[in-house]
Amino acid sequence: MVRGLVNLPHVAPPHPPPPTPSGECSLLDKTDFLHLDIELSAFRLALIQLQVSSIKSDNLTRACGLIREAATQGAKIVSLPECFNSPYGTKYFPEYAEKIPGESTQKLSEVAKECGIYLIGGSIPEEDAGKLYNTCAVFGPDGTLLVKYRKLHLFDIDVPGKITFQESKTLSPGDSFSTFDTPYCRVGLGICYDLRFAELAQIYAQRGCQLLVYPGAFNMTTGPAHWELLQRGRAVDNQVYVATASPARDDQASYVAWGHSTIGGCPC
């Protein structure tokens, strides 16, 4: 559904009108569409906040359906959430891991080409040379794999009485940055916990990115404390726009995502 519209410039002039951040929690599948007006043209960015189940084929079908819905409503860039094809958890990563290309990324390539869009494939557990990664694959309007980004900063946290999680038990960190160009702007990629590290956003801004996209699955402890705060910080510090795509909240899941897929920015 169309939930929020906000105008963003292509290359931010000295004093553009600030956009209105958009983000509301929903327990249901949804697609957030945010209209981006730039100097010479316009594009619509869709953040897909979908319910993730334990059945991979259902997740792929649901994701592709929402991507098509976004495209029919004018989206030119679409982002899925972190671990869109798999429950989020260290015990699930080995079970759901795939090669790239593989089943999930093949589906994404096909639907990107079918819809003629730039598709940021959230993330999936990737297996490569005996190691597992939390990986985002991006596809162009012709279905070509443009870039692949592996989560740099693994989510290892211990908040006594609230949450303990250690991605590094099963995952390996990435070792490189990933950007890609569109007719609308240059985009930099991060995944979830990468949002906590200001240097990554600074490097992307220095490399000419106007939009940073972080598929992420903050939880019910870190979400209310840091989700919006960190997005606004990265945006203000670097004078860029920041978009975050989360899975939908499922109170019955072993890991409950915060939701609140959002886009914001404060170039001034």
From TrEMBL:
Going by the UniProt record, its keywords in alphabetical order are: Hydrolase
Q: A Pfam family for this UniProt protein? A: CN_hydrolase
Q: Name one GO cellular component term.
A: mitochondrion
SUPFAM superfamilies, A to Z: Carbon-nitrogen hydrolase
Q: Which domain of life is it from?
A: Eukaryota
MF annotations from Gene Ontology: omega-amidase activity
- EC number(s) on record? 3.5.1.3
* Protein's name according to its UniProt entry: Omega-amidase NIT2
The opening ranks of the lineage are: Eukaryota, Metazoa, Chordata, Craniata, Vertebrata
